[in-house]
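User: Predict the complex with iron/sulfur cluster.
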Amino acid sequence: MKVDIDRIRKYNVSGPRYTSYPTAVQFREQFSSTSLENYLLSRNEKARDISLYFHIPFCFSLCWYCGCTKIITRDQDRADVYLDYLKSNMDQLLPILNNASEVTQIHFGGGTPTFLDPGQIHDLGESIKSRFKIGAGSENSIEIDPRRLTRDHVRALRQAGFNRASIGVQDTNKTVQEAVHRIQPQKTNRKVTGWLREEGFSSINIDLIYGLPRQTPELFEKTLEDVLELDPDRIATYSYAHVPWIKPSQKLIREQELPSTDDKLRMMKMAVERLIDEGYRYIGMDHFAKEDDELSKAYEEDTLQRNFQGYSTRARTDLYAFGMSGISQVGSLYFQNYKDLPRYYGELDKSHWPVQKTRWLSGDDRIRREIIMQIMCKNFVSYDSFEERWEVSFHSYFKDEMEQLRRFAEDGLLAWYDNGFELTDEGRFFVRNIAMVFDRYLSQAKREKTFSKTV
Ligand code: SF4
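Assistant: Here is the predicted structure with iron/sulfur cluster placed in the model:
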């Protein structure tokens, strides 16, 4: 597989990552607990598969590139208080949830979920198990920061039911690590992946970032070597977006040390070509997985889904999020918890939903969400299926969009069929650009300010 740098340059504009549609920028500070409860009750008249997300915001130290919602602290006791509030947050939902609904997926994100010590992990794990019906094959994943992880953490995670781990590595070169304030020797990565395998984790993902300060294509090649040595089941290679006006901690990064756009594109090209050569399948956006990994199988079996955690293997589940800033996705509703801790705690103290923002989807939003998610996850859109489901002609509903798709077809990124269109192998690298055609909220100016580059 060869990647054409000129083509990447041409399509390298700012755009959403479509972990939701409409994107979180469209959420509004409008909230009625009655409407929320009525909707959730109607949604729970029948049992459904559900996913649970827990946001653990604490981190021991600040990585300067970070754009996550986090709180830097070394006070472990803060996590005890937070866990109590997570339990109240779960208890709010229980009377509404259908008793027969099964949890098929749990994810701990952050911040740093492994900020929790082994006892706190055990406590949270038990409080989830005692409240929800966890399905036998549930995929339970956690984001891991190896720098302070102990073997006891890994054992506690397994006992709590975790079977998948995602390790933040970013870059293995010391000079780059110094430039972003995150020192993490390769021997630590080696030790932690070893523990995870020995304790029975069935899938290990490694996150990398290209475009960090002091990175060069040569240094990034060394990072790829180091990561391949760890033999992960999945690898995600994210492009660093330097947007200090949105992510203030990035102001600490020396802009003059950032690589040129050309070097950044070379790193991206190198990563794609090398990982595919090494037998990883390109899943979409920045994600690669081994052929026998669940993510690859989900891609094959058309059950791949995109949600706030990125690509996910379980399609059509309702997602309930707990913790500050967590976003739930239930049917035609998105709702997001307060992003600041005092307000999140304050609402729970008053027995209120700690919800700050909501987004109810219109009919048009639902139609466009379905098309955008099909492009992102299946790379294929069928007019017949669309027309059968929505009882409207695809060509008349998306007349302007069809016109805009022409340039992608002319560049060989998209192929037309009588019954639909499909992204070509090369087109799959530009999946965001093609999805953006169907996004009715995008305007050039807003896009430049709000979103990262598409490639
Ligand atoms: S990158 Fe991860 S560990 Fe570093 S500050 Fe952000 S959330 Fe915390």
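Residues 77-93 form the longest helix (17 residues).
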